[in-house]
Structure formats: C-alpha cells, structure tokens
Amino acid sequence: THTHTHRQLRQYHRAITMEQFMTTLAPSVWPPSARKIMCFWREAGSVDCKPKEGNPFGPFWNHYNVDFAEHVGMQLFYGSSPAEWLAAFPPSTVPVVALKGAPAAFPVQPHHRALQQFVVFNTAIQHHLSEFIVKRLARPYIALHIRAGPDWQKACATGVGSPSYMESGQCELPGGTVTLVGFFLLGEESFLPQLPLSLSPLS
Q: What pLDDT shows up at residue 43?
C-alpha cells in the first residue's frame, strides 16, 4: 500500500488504500470473526491457504493485524465470469474477498501483461531506486537477475519434464519441453561468456 501509486490503478478500477479500508470499512463489513482468506485449492478436505507463509504475505497481513478465521478453497481465475465469482462469493454473505495471491497463472500470461501498466511504484520508491543507482553503481552497468539459491534448486526439480514452467516459454519454441535441470541451474560458465554478445549492440 505504501509502495505504489493509486492514481494509475484507478484508471483501471475504483481503488482505496488498505489503510483507508481498515479504518473506514473493515470494522463494519470485515470484523475479525468474519475474515476469510481464499486460495486456489483442488484437493478435497480441509483447506490451508497458508496466508502468512513467506514474504510479503506475512509482513503485509501482520502490519494490519489481520488474522483469518476461515480458509476457503476456490477454483476461480481472472478469466472466470462475473456470474461464477458471484455464485461462489455472494456479496450478501461474503462482502470482502481476500486472496492469497493473484487469481491468475504464474508466470503472468501474455494476454494479462497489459494489466501491469496500472501497477506503478510511487515517487518515493522511484526516488530511492534512482538514488541507489547514482550512489552505488558506476555507469555504464548491466544488471543480471540470477536465481541460484536453494529455493530455486527445489523449483528446478519440480520443473523437469514440464512443457511450460516459470518463464521457460521465452527460451523454448512453442510446445518445447524442459527436460534438463541444467536448463534452470546455469552457472557462471554458462552466462558470463554470453555477456559480450549481449552488450555488443550497445557499444
């Protein structure tokens, strides 16, 4: 809530800050005993959405002193019809729909990417980013986003043999299959030699 500008978001839909919601609306429409968390859930039986597992989930809800009285499984997505959403969560009994995450596939699908234009960091965050670059990075520079930690190694094991995993679609031909762990776990010997080729058009 503190990191993004709402002016841009309001171009897509009506919006208020979480602070405004918790102060003006939550006491009457979302009391602690009625707070439910919704998450995608295929399995039968009890639902555990783990709403506070990891960052930013835990810090976000804890910042507003929110605990959930009930976990609700759902099989709805961004593309589900309004009638399906209303049938699952009628406003008369579920006035607030709190989601564990975005009701869409991960990573973001091409036809959803246009929505990202409405999520913009506010000027304070942009200032911190610019200040960090000016003070800490000598120009010119190139930034690499490399996933190589233990969490990524576990994710890689899950992706072996998948036709589309994470953003593998941008590296494979349509219909390609990820079959090798080495496809994910790229060491320095894999990407460092490619840097000169990536930078040559910028010379």
A: 74
